[in-house]
Amino acid sequence: MDERVIKEWIENKMPELVEALKQICRIRSVAETENPSCKPYGEGCKMVLRDMLQTGKDSGFSTENFEDYVGRISYPGRKKENIAIWAHLDVVDEGGGWDYAPYNPIVKDGYFIARGCQDNKSSAVMGLYVLKFMKEHGIALNHTLDLYLGTCEEQGMYDLDYFTAHYPCPTFSLVPDSGFPVCCGERGSFNGELLQKEEVSGELLDITCDCGQYTVPDKACAVLRYTEERWAKCADGQENVEAVREGEEIRVSAKGVSTQAANPDKGDSALSRLAEYLCGRDLLPEKDLRVFSLAADINRNHNGDALGVFCEDALSGPMVMVATQLSIRENSDGKRIPVLGFISKFPVTQNEIPYEERAGEAAGKRGFELKVTRNAKANCFDPQRPAVKRLTECSNEVLGREDEPFVMSGGTYARKLPNAIAFGTGMPLPKRPEEIFRPGHGDYHQPDESISLERIRKALEIYIKGILRIDELDLR
C-alpha cells in the first residue's frame, strides 16, 4: 500500500483517536487483586474493558468478553490463524505529586497527559485504529487480526494466567508495551520480601516506604524517638533528606525520583537516601539499622551481589535487583518486624540458577528470612525468525534508524503467551520540555504520565505497515 495513504489516514484520524484515548483515561482502572469491589479486578477495570469493547462494537467489529479478565475486538481474515495485538487497560496507582489531574486528560504542546496514557491505554487505542485502517480500506488479510485487552497486567498478569488456562491463545502475538524495534527476550523475575528475624527497638517507631513493588520510591520516611543526642546528629543536612522534630518524635523524610524499578538508574531512590542518612549518622541501635543497611547494599549497584545472586550474559547484561518497599509489620507473636521488599530481573540465559537457595542463604547470614513472592523464568524469541526481521526492518524504515532486536528488563504479556514478542511503542524522541514537566514527571509510572502524539502517530504507522508485511508469512 502507498505510504502516503497510510500517513494521510493517520493524520486525519488523530483528533478522533485522541478523543477515544481521553474517554478511557478518565476511568481510574487500578486493578484490585485483594477484596475487589467486583470480580475479577474491581469496578474500574470492568468499566474500562466494557467501554473499549463497546467502542469496538460501535466501529463495526465483533467483540468478546472473557469474563471481564480479557476482552477481544476482531477483524476477520481468510484463515483461522490470527495475529494478536495485546494491550492492557489497568494502570498503576496515581500516587501524589501531580501538577495535572491524573484522570482529567489534556493535550498540552503535543503531549497527552493522564495516568495510564502511555502505559498502556494509548496502545489499546492504537490497536483499535490498526483494525479500523484495515476495515476502512477493505484489506483482505490472510490472518484474522485481533486486539486483546487485559485488566491486571500491572499487578502480576493474573488476567493472562486465567485466560491462558481457560481459552485458546492466538497464533502469533505482538505486545506494544516495550520499545521498538523487536524485544526478542524478557529477563526473568525473582522477587521477594526479607523479614528481619529480630524485632526492632522502641527507638524506631515507624517506617513508611511504598510507592508500589515495581517502582523506585520517590518518598520514604522513618519516625524515631526523640532524644537530645539523636536530634543533635540531625543538625547537618543532607540533600533531599529532611529531619523534623514533632514533640517526642523525629520524622526523617527523604525525597527521590520515581521510575520503573526494572531501570533503577533512571530514577533516584528515596529509600536509598533515607538508609544512607540513618546509617551514616548512626541514628539508631544496630538491630534497627540492619534493614536500612541491607536496603542500601542492595541498591548500591543493583546487580544482586548483596544477596549472592549476581549473574550476567552477553545478550542481557548483568542482573538487576532493587529494594523498593520497606515497612514494619506485627507478626503473630506481636513483635514489630521490619520487612524489605525487592524485585529483580535476571538474564535471559540464566533460568537454571537456584536464586531462592542462594538469596536465602545470604539473607540468613544477615539476620533475615526470605519469602519469595515471584520466581518467573526468562523468555527468549529467536531474532532470526522472518517475522522479527520484517518488523525490525519496518520499524527502522519509519524511524530512520538501524536498531537491532534487543532484550529488556521489564516484563510484558509476551512472557506468558506462546509465540509472542514485545514490539513498541517506545522510540527515541526529543526530551520532554521542562516548562511542562518537572524532573521525575511525565514518564510511565511517574506523576504527570504523558505520551507524545508524535509517538502515537509513528507507532500506528509502524503497526499498520508491519502487520501488512508479516500477514503473508506462516506465523505458527
Question: If you had to describe this structure to a student in words, what would you say it looks like?
Answer:
By secondary structure, this protein is an alpha+beta fold. It has ten helices and 26 strands. The protein has helices at residues 3-25, 43-58, 117-136, 158-166, 228-233, 270-280, 286-301, 355-365, 386-399, 453-470; strands spanning 62-66, 70-75, 82-88, 106-108, 111-113, 144-150, 172-175, 178-179, 182-186, 188-196, 204-209, 215-216, 219-225, 241-246, 249-255, 259-260, 312-313, 317-318, 320-330, 336-346, 368-376, 379-380, 406-408, 420-423, 425-426, 450-452. The strands form six sheets. Strands 1, 2, 3, 6, 7, 9, 22, 23 and 24 form a nine-stranded mixed sheet that branches. It has an eight-stranded antiparallel sheet with strand order 14-15-13-11-19-20-10-21. Helix 1 (3-25) packs across helix 3 (117-136) and helix 6 crosses helix 7. 49% of the residues are buried. The mean pLDDT is 96.
